[in-house]
Amino acid sequence: MLSYELRHLLRARWLYAYAALFLAVASLTLTFSEGSDRTLLILTHASLLVVPLVSAVAAANSIYARRPYDAFLLTQPVSRAAVFFASVVSLVLAFGASFFLPVAALTLPAGLPLAPTMQMLLANVALSTTCVLTGVLVATWVEERTRGLGALLITWLATAVVYDGALLYLIVVFEDYPIEPFLTAAVLLNPIDAVRLLLYQDLGLRFVLPVVLPPGAVWLSLSVWSIILLLSGLRLFLRKDY
To answer: What is the mean pLDDT of the chain?
Structure first.
């Protein structure tokens, strides 16, 4: 089932358009940026906006589109868990590869620092995984496509844009108080912020960060988020009435 799902996704034109977008962004960045740090910083900013939005919305749209097919599969002698994992794993692999392969093909031979470049690539693949699982969870939970996609757009806007503004406001208002533990928890609760902090630390931009965390804490946070979202989506799928 997994191989079939992957072959089906490889025929989707939008997936190649997504990969081409990052190929173009990486190419333009390498052409016009000045220095390796600037190149990685521009790629980081672009990916932190585009990867969560496209991964979550496109994954949810794929789940909505395949509902009749899932209903047909569930009439066959296959388990619900197998159907769920085949669709989810194929989406995770497809979106991760669509970012990693084109960006790595341009950045790795360009002579950029290897460790920060690999950190940027792998962190965005992990973020893509988290966002794909979020899209799957919402599409499984919310019946109407319009409401589900709208909820994902609002979630992306809140976590990618509004969240940072709220944290900045709290830092300014409570600057005289020891709020570092709260800020640490707040950053780890938002995968986009956690990845941004991880990549900024690699690029030597600690002075613009509210807190400093070891990379292991960020990777653990992303892993926990992925497990929670995966198990929640599986539970909803197993109970869903088709």
So the answer is: 88
Residue with tokens 């962004």: 25
pTM of the model: 0.92
Which pair of tokens denotes residue 58? Answer: 């496109």
- Would you call 11 exposed, middle or buried from its count of C-beta atoms within 10 A (0-12, 13-18, 19+)? exposed
Tell me which residue of 73, 62, 85, 90 sits closest to 5, measured CA to CA: 90
CA-nearest of 129, 128, 132, 9 to 60 is 132
pLDDT band, very low/low/confident/very high, at 125 (cuts 50, 70, 90): very high
- pLDDT value of residue 87: 92
Q: Which long-range contacts (CB under 8 A, 24 or more apart) does 211-219 make?
A: 211/180, 211/183, 211/184, 211/187, 213/184, 213/187, 213/188, 215/119, 217/188, 218/123, 218/188, 218/194, 219/126
Could you tell me what percent of the chain has a pLDDT over 70?
A: 95
Q: What residue numbers bound the domain in which 121 lies?
A: 2-239
Q: How many structural domains comprise the chain?
A: 1
